[in-house]
Amino acid sequence: MDKQDKIYIAGHRGMVGGAVVRALKSAGYDSVLTRTRSELNLLDQSAVQAFFEAERPDVAVIAAARVGGIHANNTYPAEFMYENLAIAQNAIHAAYQAGVKRLLFLGSTCIYPKLAEQPIREESLLTAALEPTNEAYAIAKIAGLKMCEFYRRQYGVCYHSAMPTNLYGQGDNYHPQNSHVLPALIRRFHEAKLNEAPEVAIWGTGTPLREFLHADDAAAGILHLLQLENPPDWVNLGCGTDISIGDLARLVMQVVGYQGELRFDTSKPDGTPRKLTDISKIKATGWSPKIDIEQGVAMAYQSFLAEQSDGTMRE
C-alpha cells in the first residue's frame, strides 16, 4: 500500500472504521474515500457495483457491519444474517469486478466455536458448534472471510481478513439495550453515578472471561496488515490477555467514580465462558498492541464524556 493509493473505508462512521480513517490520515494517506449510508447503501448490490466502477479504489477495507451485543444478536438474528451477508458479498464481488487488487475484510472472533480451545487459534475455525446467541452474525462473517480466501485463491487478488476481538473506544455505540458489554457498562455506571443509584445490576455471574482491544490499536493492526506483501488469509486481531466481566465492571466503576453496589443478575445468560485469541500469528509479522485495559477504559470514558457533551454519541 502506497501513500498515493486511493483507499476506500466502508463503515467509516463506525468505531473501527473511524479509527482506521484517523490512523490513515495521521500516517500521511491523503486519498481516503468514504461514503455515508445515505450516500451508498451497501445492501444495494447495483449501487455498490456502480460505486466501485466509478471510483475504482486501489485498496478497500470492509469495516461496515450490523453489530450489537448479546441482546441484539439474540433478538434480531434474521437482520444480522441478511445484512452482514449482503455487505460482504456485495462489497467483495464489486471490488473484484472493478479491479481492486487489495481488500481487507473485518470479521469478529465470534466466528470461532463456542468451546474452542483457549487461546483460540485461527485453525479452530469450523471445527465445532458456534455460540448460539450470535450464530447468525458469525455465519455471515465466516462467509465473508471465506469469500476473500476463495477469491484470492481463484483470482490471485490479495483479499484477506482480520478477526478483531471485542473492540472499544472513540465512536463506540452506547445504546441502552443493543450495545456491547464495555460501552454498556460505561453508560450504566455513569448514569448510576449521576442519579445516585444505590446499585447497578449486570447480566450473568461475572465469571466469563473476555478480551478487549482498543479501536486505535485495532486500526494500527489493520494498517500493519495492509503493508504486508503476503498476509495470512485471516488473522486474529486481539491483545492476547483477558479479564472477567466482574473485574471489568469493577474497573469501570473505579474509572467512572461510581460509589454504589454491584449486583450480578444470574437469571441472565453469560454467553461463551471464555474467549481469548491467540495472537502469535500477527505478532510474528511484527505487530503488537500498545494500550492496556486500564489505560484504554480511562480513554474510552473520556471519549464517552466528550461525545455526550458535543452530541455525537452513538446510541
What's the SSE blueprint?
Elements: E1 7-10, H1 15-26, E2 32-33, H2 45-55, E3 59-62, H3 70-75, H4 77-97, E4 102-106, H5 135-155, E5 158-164, E6 166-168, H6 181-195, E7 199-203, E8 209-210, E9 212-214, H7 215-227, E10 234-237, E11 243-244, H8 245-256, E12 261-265, E13 274-275, H9 280-283, H10 293-310
Parallel strand pairs: 1-2, 1-3, 3-4, 4-5, 5-10, 6-9, 7-12, 8-13
Antiparallel strand pairs: 8-11
Helix pairs in contact: 1-7, 2-4, 4-5, 6-8, 8-10
Please name the CATH architecture: 3-Layer(aba) Sandwich
Order of SSEs:
EHEHEHHEHEEHEEEHEEHEEHH
Instruction: Describe the sheet with the most strands.
Output: 6 strands, parallel
> How much helix, percentage-wise, in residues?
40-55%
The shape, in one word, is globular
Number of domains: 1
Query: Whole-number average pLDDT?
Result: 95
Taken as a percent bin, the fraction of beta residues is 15-25%
* Strands, count: 13
* Quaternary structure of the protein: single chain
Protein architecture, described:
The protein has 315 residues and is of the alpha/beta class. The chain has one domain (7-310): 3-Layer(aba) Sandwich (Rossmann fold). Helix content is 42%, strand content 15%. The chain has helices spanning 15-26, 45-55, 70-75, 77-97, 135-155, 181-195, 215-227, 245-256, 280-283, 293-310; strands at 7-10, 32-33, 59-62, 102-106, 158-164, 166-168, 199-203, 209-210, 212-214, 234-237, 243-244, 261-265, 274-275. The strands form 4 sheets. It has a 6-stranded parallel β-sheet, with helices on both faces. Strands 11-8-13 form a 3-stranded mixed β-sheet. Strands 6-9 form a two-stranded parallel ribbon. α4 (77-97) runs parallel beside α5 (135-155) and α6 packs across α8 (245-256). The radius of gyration is 19 Å and the shape is globular.
